[in-house]
Amino acid sequence: MTALQNMTTAAILVVALLSHVTVAHVYSQCELANDLKNRGMPGSIPDWVCLIFAESSYNTAAEGHLNSDGSVDYGLFQNCVVTFCSPSHRSTAGIGVDRAMLGGGCNVNCYSLLDDDISDDVACVKIIYAQSGGFTAWNGWKSSCQNGLPNLSGC
Ligand SMILES: *[C@@H]1O[C@H](CO)[C@@H](O)[C@H](O)[C@H]1NC(C)=O
């Protein structure tokens, strides 16, 4: 490769890495609590903060938890794919999301739940909360949040 080609390759790599970094965000506990307070969440904020730590460790880009039904959960709240978002359309470029491919009860693309804008996650979570029995819709809440909640009074 020529020096110019090397520089071009390096520049493309840096742009790709930066794009990736900017789509993810890991909240601190108080930052999350204060953000959620402004979003009109149903239920108590300590319950949400506990649930989100159990599900995603406050990381908006968390993608994991293969469920027994074969679905995978996405994002801060680890919303369940099969019923609430459309899982099958990550953008072909590998970066970003094809927002045209919507689906599930939230009419959203699962991959759009991985970025640092949690507005769509919150809208979906409100639907899940209303339709699926509140906090009990999340295994992380059931396993980690019924015997004590985080103390957020310092936030
Ligand atoms: C919660 O934290 C505050 C300080 O941030 C403390 O004063 C208070 O005692 C704590 N409450 C409980 C129940 O631990």
TrEMBL record:
Keyword annotations of the record: Antimicrobial, Bacteriolytic enzyme, Disulfide bond, Glycosidase, Hydrolase, Signal
Q: Does the keyword Amino-acid biosynthesis apply?
A: no
Q: Which Pfam families match?
A: Lys
Q: What is its EC number?
A: 3.2.1.17
The record places domain Glycosyl hydrolases family 22 (GH22) at 106-124
Reactions the enzyme catalyzes:
Hydrolysis of (1->4)-beta-linkages between N-acetylmuramic acid and N-acetyl-D-glucosamine residues in a peptidoglycan and between N-acetyl-D-glucosamine residues in chitodextrins
Tell me where the signal peptide lies.
Answer: 1-24
Family stated for the protein in its record:
Belongs to the glycosyl hydrolase 22 family.
Q: What is this protein called?
A: lysozyme
What species is this protein from? Answer: Timema podura (Walking stick)
